[in-house]
Design a protein that fits this description.
Order of helices and strands: HHHEEEEHEEEHEEEHEHHH
Radius of gyration: 37 Å
Distance between the termini: 20 Å
Length: about 425
């Protein structure tokens, strides 16, 4: 039962006007934002779906950005690698020509001048910088030059020439997410790309009675291998061979020393992460020496880089040693060209994979955007119609209110 008073009409009118204003404000806000859902209470189920779709769309857009950034890096890297491959092809032509044995020593020295120029260009490519000013082939240590050069006197030359090229980066790999839980590993280590031969390491210490005195971890080409107390060299060999690292280990049948051989052309990266096991075995020096040039003095290492092969060719030409040119040097150059070709092909395959991922992510983004539109976008035609109806109702209410305000309690007592 309602209590009849002089304020009844005014209270009822004000109450209904506030409700109409609330509805009108809500629809004006929806039209302004073009969103159907302005608060969770509008449609809780659709709001839950909308939040998930928007979160997924953000991730898909980030995947696309990652893919485009990586694609650019692969393009830059492939350009320098292809240029280096062309340089090595020219170096091989000169090596074959110099190995004929029909050219005089002066002719070979003239060829050596071109070989030295090609060597300088090869080093320049290996130390190339990307658009951000970072080294392309230094692994994750991209703030420093990938390779350092030593200048020295070379027999037959009248001025100092490049005598050695050393890797200054690392072998760490960046893994970039390009889809849900799918990653691309960006391998940009110069001591893999610009390497010529499989490297072999021959330990000089008898390890037949060696045992690990405490637990530890060693890093072999970026793969962590854990050692436990009491592990012998045979256990270590087994763990290395089953670790997935691109290195095979074995025990020398004569010296009982630890031998390591890469499964492809690259430089071995080995260090103690926890403990001093490799140092105790005489494989590497103490932790003050950083890889890859931290092998002990009694360890023999074979296998060189592309730079070593070109340097050997130049020096052999300066000496007039055609036998070395046609044998060891030419074989090393062929091996280096083969390795560089494989790296270029791998880089190209990763680029094509990224292009496919970009196309798929673009289609996924369109589908998710359609879902977001379905759940959250406003039907503007219906909204404008409702807005006009609410405005008409409000005007009618105000008009009737103006007529009712003259009524009082006496009107109900007649």
């Amino acid at each position: 039962m309602k209590r009849i008073s002089s304020q009844m009409n005014n209270n009822n009118t004000q109450y209904n006007l506030r409700i109409q204003e609330q509805k009108l404000n809500k629809i004006n806000s929806q039209i302004g934002t073009q969103q159907r859902i302005t608060s969770l209470r509008d449609d809780p189920v659709a709001a839950g779906h909308l939040v998930k779709y928007q979160s997924y769309l953000t991730r898909v857009n980030n995947f696309s950005k990652n893919g485009m950034t990586l694609s650019d890096q692969f393009v830059y890297r492939e350009g320098y690698m292809t240029s280096s491959l062309e340089i090595m092809q020219r170096v091989r032509e000169l090596a074959v020509t110099g190995a004929n044995g029909i050219y005089s020593r002066d002719d070979l020295r003239n060829m050596a001048v071109e070989v030295d120029s090609l060597l300088q260009e090869l080093v320049q490519n290996a130390n190339a910088l990307g658009p951000e000013g970072t080294s392309i082939f230094a692994g994750t240590n991209s703030d420093a030059p990938a390779f350092e050069i030593d200048m020295g006197h070379v027999e037959g030359a009248v001025q100092p020439l490049i005598s050695a090229v050393r890797y200054n980066g690392n072998v760490d790999v960046n893994s970039v997410e390009i889809d849900e839980n799918k990653y691309v590993s960006v391998e940009s280590s110069g001591n893999r790309i610009f390497w010529a031969e499989n490297q072999r390491v021959f330990g000089g210490r008898d390890l037949s009675n060696w045992q690990a005195k405490n637990p530890g971890i060693i890093n072999l080409d970026g793969v962590k291998i854990r050692l436990e107390t009491g592990d012998t060299v045979y256990s270590l060999v087994s763990k290395i061979n089953s670790s997935g690292a691109p290195v095979k280990a074995g025990l020398d049948p004569i010296t009982n020393g630890l031998n390591l051989t890469t499964t492809d052309s690259h430089q071995i990266w080995i260090e103690d992460v926890e403990g001093t096991h490799l140092n105790d075995m005489g494989i590497i020096k103490d932790s003050s020496q950083k890889p890859p040039y931290n092998f002990s003095d009694n360890v023999r290492v074979s296998g060189g880089s592309l730079f070593d092969m070109v340097i050997s060719l130049r020096d052999s030409m300066l000496k007039g040693d055609t036998q070395s040119i046609g044998g060891r040097v030419l074989a090393g150059i062929d091996s280096g060209i083969g390795n560089l070709t494989v790296r270029v092909a791998k880089n190209g395959s990763e680029y094509e994979r990224l292009q496919n991922d970009l196309v798929r992510n673009s289609a996924t983004a369109l589908n998710v955007t359609s879902s977001i539109s379905r759940e959250g976008d406003l039907d503007i035609t219906q909204a404008i119609t409702d807005q006009k109806m609410l405005e008409y109702t409000q005007q009618a209410t105000l008009s009737n209110a103006g007529k009712m305000y003259s009524s009082s309690l006496l009107n109900y007592m007649k």
